[in-house]
Amino acid sequence: MCIRDVMCVLVVMAFGVAGCASDDAPPQAAASSTVDSARQADSTAGSAAAQPASPGVGIAPKGQPKTGTAAGSASASAPAQSPAAPTASSATEPVERPKRPDVIFVPTPDEVVAKMLELARVTSKDVVYDLGCGDGRIVVAAAKLGCLAYGFDVDPQRIKESKENVAKNGVGNRATIEQKDIFTLDLSKADVVTLYLLPSLNVKLIPQLEKLKPGSRIVSHDFDMQGVTPDKVEEVDGQIGAGHTVYLWTAPLKKEAQTE
Q1: Coil vs helix vs strand at 131
Q2: Can you list the alpha helix ranges (DSSP code H) found in 150-216?
Q3: Residues 118-128, buried b or exposed e (16+ Cβ, 10 A)?
Q4: Cα separation of 91 and 173, whole Å?
Q5: I need a labelling partner for 133 at 20 to 30 A (CA). Which of 6, 25, 96, 246 fits?
Q6: Domain regions of the chain by residue span
Q7: How far apart are CA 247 and CA 221, in angstroms?
């Protein structure tokens, strides 16, 4: 082998060694780069861990309560609801039912009305109370004599009819109709009291009638007052043949002696 061949071999070998070294270099550089990246990531994570968490995200600063999620935070910051204003009680006050009439309305014939006012000697100076006034015919007849007349009834229909009768006869300036329970009335201002009730109801009125001033008169159509002696009793012939009785009492009442 000549010197030239030896030199060629050496040159080839040199280039081969240099190529091997060049091929190994990239993996070493990649490894070095990976290690450096890992170290940088660890450094960043450590730095982030060293920083305190933002309040309201999940970890509260020391000394403050945890607010939870963002929705919970918003809920906590909303103003507290004021207590509801007290409302009126739903329970209603008991309503008193209107009193039912004690008797069925049966009108007093006009001729009997005239006899009642005649027996009671009604004048323009008197005050007449009709208890259970019905359609108001006694009140109207008394008012036409020039006196002040008052009619009382618990039936709304009778009150309506009485007021219409008063208006029809033009005696509204002397006649008054009121819806009231006759057993609650103060009768002390009356000079004359007219009745067309049942005997038991007449008796029930005795405590009120005893408060009438002396000389006051009480007249009743058809029914007496048990235990009280009438001053006068008169019969009236009816237009259809039926007879009627009119009773008169004068205050103070003359009570009958009770027998055992």
Answers
A1: strand
A2: 156-169, 199-204, 206-209
A3: ebbebeeebbb
A4: 44
A5: 96
A6: 110-250
A7: 7
pLDDT tens for residues 31-76?
344 434 444 444 444 444 344 443 333 434 444 444 443 334 334 4
CATH number belonging to the domain at 110-250, selected among 3.30.420.10, 3.30.70.141, 3.40.50.150, 3.90.930.1:
3.40.50.150
Tokens 């005696």, residue located: 171
pLDDT digits (tens, 9 = 90+) for 175-222: 999 999 999 999 999 999 999 999 999 999 999 999 999 999 999 999
- Mark residue 78 as left, alpha or beta (left: phi above 0; alpha: psi -120 to 50; beta: remaining): beta
The half-sphere exposure of 39 on its side-chain side, counting CA atoms within 13 A, is: 6
What does the alpha-carbon distance between residue 144 and residue 171 come to, in Å, rounded to a whole number?
Answer: 7
Give the C-alpha separation, 24 to 133, whole Å.
133
Using a pLDDT cut of 70, give the percent of the chain over it: 60
Rg (CA), the chain: 58
